[in-house]
Amino acid sequence: MHTTDHNQRQTPNASPQSAVSAERMPGIRHIIAVGSGKGGVGKSTVSVNLALALQQLGARVGIVDADILGPSIPGMLGIETDKPPLMTPDGKMIPALRHGLKVVSMAMLTGDDDPAVLRGPMVGKYLNMFVGGVQWGSLDYLILDLPPGTGDTQLTLAQSMPLSGVVIVTTPQAVSLKIARRGLRMFEKVQVNILGIIENMRTFTCPHCGENTDIFRHGGGEQMSKELDVPFLGALPLDIDVVTSGDEGRPIVADQPTSVSAKVYASIATALVEQLHEAVTVLKPFVWKWDSDEGAPGWMEDAARPAGSQKTPIGFLRRDPRTLSILWEDGHRDDFDVRDLRLACHCALCIEEMSGRKLLDPKTIRSDVSPRQIMSVGNYAITFDWSDGHNSGIYSFNDLRALGADAAARSVENV
Q: Which residue ranges make up the annotated binding site for ATP?
């Protein structure tokens, strides 16, 4: 593995073992991921200019260049990467400051021409460090500019960070829309709120004759938002000034605030703020010690509503030492015997991944097995540290709701 020459640069500790949680980042109000299904759709340009547009609304904003292997944000903002970042006495990185934005990127550790050759787990560790190991101070929005696709970085984010939601960037052409749809569905599966779709490079206006040309077709992102019932935040033109200003480290929102593109970004930022205002996360990330009930996530009966989601929990309760109760947003409650949950583990040690054959012998699980602690996994699952030492299973909310339904059906059959 190669990251940088340690004789030339001081690389901060990249091995935080615990996931980034809201409690570790009390000064950050919203963490917003900006993603795309494929490269070349202008996602990083959108991230930078969206951050600046939010700042112009009066917000305090930071950016994490989460494309660890292909960082580009420093170049777009004109940030020099020939010197290592400063560190606080307690070992936290001090972000760069440019155009009023606080910025962290792998390019600040490796330099422009020095590649970061990292395996998947190390990518996740650096990403956690760039969020939880930085002295961000108070921020209204922390923008995470993701690499394209649905790989390790996206999964690390979904599992370890309290995301307020994700913005999907696409161009109007069919191939981009198809892959963007796939990326959007991935975030939906791990229950990350889709804040909206941005269609980039919609129309090119000739600077000489004024004629409009839809180089990448027209309106595909808006149509996709209707089909998938997610918000459409806006459409950006294909503007040569956006490219030029980005290449020169002068993002168009900062350099030409009265331009057509800058005005569209302002509109998108306003729409995004409205989406965030409506998006309410009831339960915060938690680490819950079962026996003492310390860190219990809460039981929000007032948030239940008949039209609520069947797969969004609004309460977890230790009803008794052997029973975990889950309250769902639609008002339904499931009561699980904790040993039944241990037997229902679907990790690779308990279920053969390819065939689905059960590897776990119920006779080997003690009748008094119980959780030592229960931890949230992103917005979509929980995981258990069991008293028998097992801790590799992830229980998605979808699976828990289905498990409750199966138990209720068996109960009816036995009556």
A: 37-44
Q: Are strands 371-377 and 28-35 parallel, antiparallel or unpaired?
A: unpaired
CATH class of 287-414: alpha beta
Structural contact between residues 271 and 231, judged by C-beta atoms closer than 8 angstroms:
yes
Sheet holding 333-337, edge to edge: 298-299, 313-320, 323-328, 333-337
Q: What are 101's strand-pairing partners?
A: 98
Which region, left, alpha or beta, applies to residue 219 given φ > 0 means left and ψ of -120 to 50 means alpha?
left
Shortest CA distance to 42 belongs to which of 187, 174, 237, 212?
237
Asked if residues 296 and 316 have their Cβ atoms less than 8 Å apart, the reply is yes
Q: What pLDDT score was predicted for residue 339?
A: 97
pTM assigned to the model: 0.74
We find that the CATH architecture of domain 22-278 is 3-Layer(aba) Sandwich (3.40)
> In 3D, which of 89, 91, 29 has the Cα closest to residue 61?
29
Q: Please, which pLDDT band fits residue 380 given cuts at 50, 70 and 90?
A: confident
Residue type, 77: L
In the chain, list all ranges with CATH 3.30.2020.30: 287-414
CB 188 within 8 A of CB 218: no
Instruction: Report residue 232: phi and psi, to 5°.
Output: -105, 115
Please give the annotated binding residues, written as ranges: 37-44
Distance of alpha carbon 401 from alpha carbon 40, whole angstroms: 39
Q: Is the dihedral of CA 186, 188, 190, 192 positive or negative?
A: positive
pLDDT tens readout for residues 86-110: 899 998 999 999 999 999 998 888 7
Residue 176: left if φ>0, alpha if ψ -120 to 50, beta else—which one? alpha
Residues of the chain with CATH 3.40.50.300: 22-278
CB 252 within 8 A of CB 224: no
152 versus 67: the higher-pLDDT residue is: 67
* Beta strand spans in 54-107 (E): 61-65, 96-98, 101-105
